[in-house]
Write a structure and sequence with these properties.
Shape: flat
Number of strands: 15
Largest sheet: 4 strands, antiparallel
Radius of gyration: 26 Å
Structural class: alpha+beta
Order of helices and strands: HEEEEEEEEEEEEEEEH
CATH architecture of the domain at 151-233: Sandwich
Strand content: 25-35%
Length: about 260
């Protein structure tokens, strides 16, 4: 297998540019007809650098603890104080999480300000409130029991496989790795074809929350049908697109002087 060589004849190693800024950078050389040509090394370095920079940028990074505050709390029955597990807790701008076996939840890195907090749990009335974060915040969220209206003849609810797909309608392709939460205590991710499958009660209202990096969050309610197929369309988040464009532009500006030095 052929390997790439620098102008000095030594092997070229990915990441070699980062070892020292003071070293001379020479264009990559290889035999003609094998994918690399003389004079294209600078462009190749630029493309590799941009690809790496964008890949790192697109990986969601948690905010450092010192960048914000902790918002935590407990979801419980209003009458019995019993913790409610698998309640969907959504904090505006910070996504959704599920409460644990004791009804507890936690968000970290929340910046000071006002936010809407929504809580949904199967069999309970939803709760929505406005909170102001000025420091570590602890909340108690009591939910009132809200029995589901059932047909007078049908008394048993049957669990079924609820299947769906997550799609980007603008680009017309399906999204992999989208996080799917429901208020019936299930959580999963979409596969390489955008598909997902969760357990649900047939004919019982199902709250579905879909989250994917670079897209606006989607919250909707559907009535599961065993034969139904559901597509959840996510819209691109323009703010994230602008952030990516700014970072790519910065990478290009930083890389240009180094690559230009290779022609001197």
């Amino acid at each position: 297998m052929d390997h790439l060589e620098t102008a000095s004849g030594g092997p070229w190693v990915a990441g070699e540019l980062a070892a020292s800024d003071s070293r001379d950078v020479s264009p990559i050389q290889a035999s003609p007809g094998r994918g690399w040509a003389r004079g294209t090394g600078v462009r190749s370095y630029l493309l590799l650098g941009l690809a790496f920079g964008v890949a790192v940028l697109l990986v969601p990074q948690p905010l450092p603890a010192q960048a914000g505050e902790t918002v935590e709390g407990r979801v419980h029955e209003a009458d019995t104080d019993l913790g409610i597990q698998n309640a969907v807790v959504e904090l505006e701008g910070y996504g959704s999480t599920l409460s644990d076996a004791d009804g507890e939840f936690r968000f970290e890195g929340v910046l000071a300000g006002g936010y809407t907090l929504r809580v949904l749990a199967f069999g309970y009335a939803p709760d929505s409130r406005f909170i102001v974060v000025t420091g570590p915040t602890v909340l108690e969220i009591p939910l009132e029991v809200s029995p589901l209206p059932l047909d007078s003849v049908v008394v048993d609810m049957r669990r079924i496989d609820f299947e769906g797909r997550v799609r980007d309608p603008g680009e017309d392709y399906y999204l992999v790795g989208a996080n799917v939460l429901t208020n019936q205590g299930t959580q999963t991710e979409s596969d390489t074809h955008g598909r997902f499958r969760v357990d649900a009660y047939e004919e019982a209202p199902l709250q579905v929350s879909v989250r994917a990096f670079g897209y606006l969050p989607l919250d909707t309610v559907v009535t599961p049908d065993e034969d139904g197929r559901y597509v959840f369309d996510l819209r691109e988040d323009s703010l994230v697109e602008k952030m990516v464009a700014v970072q790519v532009e910065r990478l290009e500006r930083r890389a240009a002087p180094r690559f230009a030095a290779g022609f001197r």
